[in-house]
What we know:
- By secondary structure, the protein is α+β, with helices and mostly antiparallel strands.
- It has five helices and eight strands.
- The longest helix has 19 residues, at 62-80.
- The protein is elongated, with a radius of gyration of 26 Å.
Amino acid sequence: FLSDTQTPWQEYYRRGLAGESFSVEIRRQVADIDHYYEYRFTPILATSGVVTGVTIFGRDVTARRQAEEQLRLLNQAIEQSPSSVIITDTRGDIQYVNSSFCRLTGYSLAEVIRKNPRILKSGHHGPEFYTDMWATITSGGEWHGEMLNRKKNGEAFWELASITGVKN
């Protein structure tokens, strides 16, 4: 990102007069805090098609940039977690797994997307085990327990799990 003092405003104006539409994002420091602004340059055309000027529309995108940074940090934390993370939709279809899940189970993200976590079932636990687990989760509680699951290659593994619904 260019700082406000490095911004080539004359060059941007020249590009607009040459008929180019484009956007730039500029960082400005205000009271030692970074603020981000997006500027959209659009040529003004006369009815003859000749460029007669440039419209510059600017907006503060600081909040968006801060939210993007928070999402990036959260994504890094989940990806670097030594614990498996699985996110499903309300039907139980997998929407996301982190790299620890992939290393542990042998499944890739592409192989499990839109699948149900039951692909990990080993057959060790009876129906009452899963009924209790799902009753806890769907009532808004957090389920904790050990599960004997199965990897992609068929090998069984024990997992200490904490499962909770994500509320919006």
